[in-house]
Amino acid sequence: MDTISSFVILYPVIVSTVWIVGSIFFAIQQRRVPLNNVHAGKPDALVSILIPAHNEEETLDKVVESVARLTYAKLELILINDGSTDQTVRVMHQLAEKYGAKVPIRIVDIKKNQGKANALNVGAKEARGEFLLCLDADCYVDRNALEPMMARFYDNPKVGAVGGKPIVRNRTSLLGRLQLLEYVGVIDIIKRGQAFVTGHITTVSGVVVAYRKAALADAGWWNTDAITEDIDMTWRLYHHGWQVAYCPLSVAWILVPERIVDLVHQRRRWARGGFEVLYRNRGMLVTGRLSEQWLLMDMILSDLWALSCAFVTLFYLITVAFTGDLIMDGVILFLLLLISLIQFLIGYADSKKSDFITWHDLLLLPLYVIFYWFINLVSCLTALGSFFLDPRHVGSWSSPDRGL
Q1: Cα 181 to Cα 357: distance, rounded to the nearest angstrom
Q2: Mapping DSSP to helix (H, G, I), strand (E, B) and coil, where does residue 224 land?
Q3: Percent helix, strand, coil in the chain (nearest 5)?
Q4: Distance CA 146, CA 41 (A)
Q5: What DSSP element (H or E) covers 335?
Q6: How does DSSP assign 158-187, residue by residue?
Q7: How many angstroms separate the CA atoms of 153 and 149, rounded?
Q8: pTM score, two decimals?
């Protein structure tokens, strides 16, 4: 029991310290190490922007408007309707008329809802560009997002994908503000740390990611059986020898769930996607590159931590119930809060301009620590049960909670 308790306490402390140090050096590296440009002197490459949509009549206008404002000159936009039952197709045609003079727009209409991965595959076949920028239909992308991404592609011909940085924009609820802290102080910090320490990231964010089309073809395109197409594609690229870069300068503003049930559903889907990737790429624990082995092992330890945390919490509650003694180690709590504070202060320093956050947002940090542990613990445990009880997945999607 002592061994399990030590693991529950020490694992987040050690891992957070590694990612914090890595994120600091990543920021220094981004400022001090110039990128090469093997494309210098050549015309800009055509970038095809893919936006798959299922029942997105209320959100499409914002993302298409943001695409029309992109500063990158050589673009085409492909809107993909995936079996919508609302007025999504009609809205697409209206937007094509409204913004067609600024960016060429084509519409692909898939009659049967078959999931995001299938929609992306269909759209990619229609794309003429050498590079693809994939955006979710409920986001809007920063006008300067593409140039930094293209710089990463031109810097290294083995880069098959460049992940951008999602920023929470709906902050009218407590849950939305807590997720703002998570994207700034956890998700972004982890990706920065991973990118520096291993040269890899666990996954791109499907909401804003650019791909080299040749890399997608080499990896066999998107897997329609995967529940999370972004993490699956990240590891398919690794499996075929491609690299994936992280570019926090390329941001997209996103809507996040504002109901607990929808948030848990989202995180359960993410966690199950992680289990699927672990299972499909288990051989890379032996044959993969050291950086890939490290990330896969971290995913395994993270899942083991969730199980161990559940066991320790249950044991603690039973002990309290039978003895009536509330046992709390103040040193441990202080250490965890201190690590969290340092992590969020670094995230705040890196993101206060791009994310439009203030120091007042950090006042929610103590509540966030509890929130983060609870949500991810529940999501991991339910996803694990779902993975073993229902291993098959049918590729379809439904519109999630978009918040306010």
Answers
A1: 9
A2: coil
A3: 55, 15, 30
A4: 18
A5: helix 330-351
A6: TEEEEEEEEEE---SSHHHHHHHHHIIIII
A7: 7
A8: 0.88
Work out the angle at residue 6's Cα, subtended by the Cα atoms of residues 330 and 277, and round it to the nearest 5 degrees. 120
Which residue blocks in 183-281 are alpha helix, DSSP H? 188-197, 213-219, 229-239, 260-280
Q: Take residue 338 and report the two structure tokens written for it.
A: 């201190």
pLDDT of residue 174: 85
Q: How far apart are CA 202 and CA 197, in angstroms?
A: 12
In this prediction, residue 365 carries a pLDDT of 74
- What are 175-193's pLDDT values in tens digits? 888 888 888 888 999 999 9
- The residues with which 110 forms a beta bridge, in sequence order, are 82
CA distances from 245 to 97, 102, 197, 224, 363 (A): 35, 29, 13, 23, 32
Q: Please give the radius of gyration of the chain, using alpha carbons only, rounded to the nearest integer.
A: 21
Across 263-289, b (16+ Cβ under 10 Å) vs e yields bbbbbbbbbbbbbbbbebbeebeeebe
Half-sphere exposure of 197 (CA within 13 A, CB side): 23
Average pLDDT, the chain: 85
Strand boundaries in 232-349, DSSP class E: 243-254
8 A C-beta contact, residue 138 and residue 63: yes
